[in-house]
Amino acid sequence: MSPNDLRLFIQFTMTGISEGALLALIALGLVLIYKSTDVLNFAHGEFMLLGAFITWDLMVNYQLPVLLALPLAGAIMILVAIAVERLMLRPLIGKPVISIIMVTIGMSSVIHAIVGAIWGPKRQVLPQLFPEILEGPGLRIFVEGVRRPAQMSYERIYWVLVAIVLVLLFVLFFRRSRQGIAMRATADDQQAAMSMGISIQRIFAITWSVAALTAGVSGLMVADFDTVSTSINEVVLRAFPVIILGGLDSIAGAIIGGMIIALTEQYVSGFIDPSLKNVVPYLVLLLVLMARPYGLFGEKIIERV
Amino acid sequence: MNRRMLELNNVEVIYDDVILVLKGLSLQVEEGQIVALLGSNGAGKSTTLKAVSGLLVPEDGEVTDGSIEFLGQMIHNQEPSRIVRKGIFQVMEGRRIFEHLNVEENLRAGAYTTPHRQQISEKLALVYEYFPRLAERKQQVAGFLSGGEQQMLAIGRALMATPKLMLLDEPSLGLAPLLVQEIFQIIERINQEQGTSILLVEQNARVALRIAKHAYIMENGRIVMDGTPEELSDNADVREFYLGFTERGQRKSYRDVKHYKRRKRWLS
Ligand SMILES: Nc1ncnc2c1ncn2[C@@H]1O[C@H](COP(=O)(O)OP(=O)(O)O)[C@@H](O)[C@H]1O
Ligand SMILES: [Mg+2]
Fold this sequence. Notes:
The complex is a heterodimer. Chain A is mainly alpha-helical. In chain A, 69% of the residues lie in helices and 2% in strands. Chain A has one domain (16-133, 147-242). Chain A contains eleven helices and two strands; from the N terminus they run H-H-H-H-E-E-H-H-H-H-H-H-H. Chain B is globular. Chain A binds chain B through residues 94, 175, 178, 181-182, 184-185, 187-199, 202, 299, 302, 304-305, and chain B through 53-55, 58-60, 79-81, 83-85, 89-92, 96-101, 105-106, 108-110, 112-113, 115, 141, 143-144, 146-147, 150, 157, 161. The complex binds adenosine-5'-diphosphate and magnesium ion (MG). Residues 45-46, 93, 169 of chain B line the site of magnesium ion.
């Protein structure tokens, strides 16, 4: 390996980690909905879109400071999620899963159209979100014999940290909190959960709210890496293979799957051919599923002893 | 005189708008009692419990006639989450533990309607005292517990909610006789020590009658007989069909009883 190849490898790894954090966060939101409702939410990308545009709008058009804009955008996302759950999904409880999936597909085009109508197709630049504690171009790693360093902007480093914190909060929430345990119980056995006094409708409302929040955050992340645009939702297409790879219902699977896919994307498109980037997630997926049909962490039904 | 805790009056339950399963069923549970509801498979015992706990709703079942009163309040067709908060907790047939949660998380799920931390840790301690085997397996994933341990967990989960009335659906199902004895002793202790009233559904009439104060026998969606365990054990029909004795007091084989039941159903 030449010194420059080594630099490129380091560069691709750093970019891959931040992209992986993004894919993992998106996958987490999808897994959350899938675990508790058995539904693959095809409107997740549009929730991302909404989160990014609402935050941008609050910061730019309403001139709100970050620390006000973010909680407000979060609150709006929760309201949207609750409205969607109550008006479109609750009437479908008990109906075949496929009808609910169709509804999420319909919902995705409706939200996309609404966002386009309100904010237009123009690409916008998201104002700075993170405080400027650290100045300069970011983290640089020099390889002996090469002048250009491998580098990662502070923005991306911050986002990786945000993703790590969110994942930790997620895990804590599901292991420790009353609602988190109730959500897992509901995912396991709805009727038994009801017999505990858990209100399934309440759980679904919480599930959709949390999922919409993570979608909003991942939408912001895409917007910050790139721009605020009506194509933010397309990133979800890279996250679907992540959750299938990870096993659909596993949080660990979402994280590790996200990293594997993002890193492979970087190495393949960097070292082999950039046009392969969009195919890579699906190629990796095919290879893994051939060896492990339930994904890396897919659930095997527990057999009682 | 004991207070009336639960009263079902001429309850009719229909599934899917057409399948009539309870056909005017009445029964009472006095405060502090263990009452047994006996009957063969398909008689409607589970349906009766679900009508009380509100768990009919997700099965598209509905109380269409009669009334269910708990401590003087009408509760039929209410949401289970409201009924649990009023103090009724059903331990469903087949245990229905949360397989992917560990033992302690299962118990915490049972305490969902108990928001006070202090009370939750007291209840955890209480459950572990009744079921030391669960204490040894706190962190174990519940799906890997043995059948007996899962039944203990299911009852422990109910204890976590501090119910006034516990509905137990066939706790002896699929367990070895020795374990059945152990679990029934604990049910009796919970009744005496915690003052919990219990409505106990069983196909295993013999063990149920041993701890019950009063028992009902149901067939085909109706109560056909009730009385104290002594009265029922003296009744020739009950001895024959539910306790498996012939007139001369010998045990009949399971197959004979089964055969008789099948014939009876075919005739009716
Ligand atoms: N969800 C349901 N939908 C339709 N019929 C049901 C349902 N649950 C039970 N039944 C019918 O009601 C009758 C009584 O069932 P159940 O209450 O489970 O009896 P038991 O608990 O005494 O064995 C059975 O004939 C059963 O087929
Ligand atoms: Mg039953």
